[in-house]
Amino acid sequence: AELATTGADGYATVTYTASTDDIICAVVATDAQGGQSSIGTVYQGAAQDVAPTAQDTFPTSLAAGAEPTKFTTVFTNPGTKSIVNAQIDFSIFPGENATSNVTAEQVALSFSTDGPDGPFTPVVLSGSTVQDGGIEGTLGDPGGTTLEAGSTLTVTYLLSLDASVSTEAAGPLLSFEAYLDQINPGSGAGTNLADTGSTDIEVFAAGEAPTGTAVNDTAVNDTVVNDTVVNEAAGADATGAIESETTTTAAADTTVTTAPAKSDESSSAPVVIGVIALVVLMAGIGIFVATRKRKS
């Protein structure tokens, strides 16, 4: 397989030659400094029919110091095998060109899998948007979720921002993204199964009018395996990966472009391809999956 490393701009490029076979292939990125890895997956042929999907209703604006905002993520397993040892991760990244740092202590997040009325369980968050590259949290017990074959899991969230969060940004201050991951209980390695894609969010002061109120409720079919084959083969920790924008393609000779990591730590380390900056699909039809996760 072709290998590539990131250049000074944080991008790496690799070409994958797809086929019409009914198979799932993995493209693996490994951080050369820390050894942490992530997996991008190419679904080919009929394998695309069993790829888990993710939807969200993330807001596009939030008021600092206001009451919690409610939104959802929906993960669907259309396959014939249950997804075991799964977990849902929630990430808050800096918005495009954001420079004001937001810390985990300034965000309150809770979730419920029992509907919009709860009960709600607090999520332990860590990190910060600009200084650490992202705020991260895992819902419930790591690897403690099972998504049955043919089922859908709806998660309702309550999120609020402290009044101390900056409201001076000219553009989006934050970006939300959620993941369904599968954890190998023996090694702790993880594979991303479904990714909502990112939604940028503007932050305004409580009592002020937001610049926009639309929500992102588009289904994203950039999702991965329903068993542990790729997970065990890679032996990689998907929870510690560089960031890349998630893009889906279903056509041959199509270029999938993803952005480099925004954090200094992620962009400075050479990376052997997997969650990559550029992938070209050739001679076949497939769906490529890459996550936007960063190193912890």
Structure, briefly:
By secondary structure, the chain is mostly beta strands. The protein is built from two helices and 22 strands.
Task: Report on the architecture of this protein.
With 296 residues, this protein is mostly beta strands. Strands 6, 8, 11, 12, 13, 15, 16 and 17 form an eight-stranded mixed sheet that branches. The chain has a five-stranded antiparallel sheet with strand order 4-7-14-9-10, with no helix packed on it. β2 and β3 form a beta hairpin. The radius of gyration is 18 Å and the shape is globular. It starts with 12 loop residues before the first strand and ends in a 7-residue tail after the last strand. The C terminus is likely disordered.
> How far do the termini sit from each other?
28 Å
Averaging pLDDT over every residue, what do you get? Answer: 73
Number of helices: 2
Percent in helix: under 10%
Number of strands: 22
Structural class: mainly beta
Q: Please write the string of helix (H) and strand (E) elements.
A: EEEEEEEEEEEEEEEEEEHEHEEE
Radius of gyration from the CA trace?
18 Å
| Unreliable stretches | 212-296
* Largest sheet: number of strands, sense, barrel closure: 8 strands, mixed
Quote the beta fraction. Answer: 35-45%
- Indicate the overall shape: globular
Record keyword descriptors for this entry.
mainly beta; 296 residues; single chain; five-stranded antiparallel β-sheet
